[in-house]
Specification:
Blueprint (H helix, E strand, L loop, with lengths): L8 E3 L2 H24 L5 H21 L3 E5 L2 E5 L4 E4 L4 E5 L7 E5 L4 E4 L8 H18 L9
Antiparallel strand pairs: 1-2, 2-3, 3-4, 5-6, 6-7
Helix pairs in contact: 1-2
Length: about 150
């Protein structure tokens, strides 16, 4: 159990998140500046530039939202627009196969839940390490009461 991360632990694509947050700020600043600097625009048109900038930045913020939080009581998976709380026993396996865009959690009800908080896009090695850590936590935490926890 020494190789297990201390709980609580949050898994998220840090580089992707940083890029998305920086892009959100840059998009908002540039589109707003263009709208305010164009001389022939009226107040309504300028407001539409600012609104468009806010909407584009909002999309980037939603794209930076995914994470997986593992705690003593279970796992919370936060995807783009959804958040789901799982007990450890509900997670059967953690999969990140070659070519997968993110981790998939196989659940005890026979369904599969994508966990976008662990994705190998920009930081493949980090995602693989995070998937291994979450898999080890699931194996250690969801074992029955008679199973050894070494």
């Amino acid at each position: 159990m020494s190789d297990l991360p201390d709980l609580p632990v949050t898994f998220r694509p840090a580089r992707t998140r940083a890029i998305m947050l920086c892009a959100a700020v840059a998009i908002f600043a540039v589109v707003t500046a263009v709208g305010l600097l164009l001389k022939p625009l009226g107040p309504g048109e300028r407001a539409s530039f600012v609104l468009t900038a806010a909407l584009l930045a909002g999309v980037m913020l939603v794209l930076s939202r995914p994470k997986v939080v593992a705690e003593d009581s279970g796992v919370t998976v936060v995807n783009l627009t959804t958040k789901r709380r799982l007990e450890w026993a509900e997670i059967v396996s953690v999969n990140l196969r070659p070519g997968d865009p993110w981790v998939f959690l196989n659940l005890s009800d026979g369904t599969s839940l994508p966990a976008l908080g662990i994705q190998p896009g920009i930081a493949r090695e980090r995602a693989l390490a995070d998937a291994r850590a979450l898999r080890a936590l699931v194996e250690a935490r969801s074992a029955g009461p008679d199973a050894p926890r070494d």
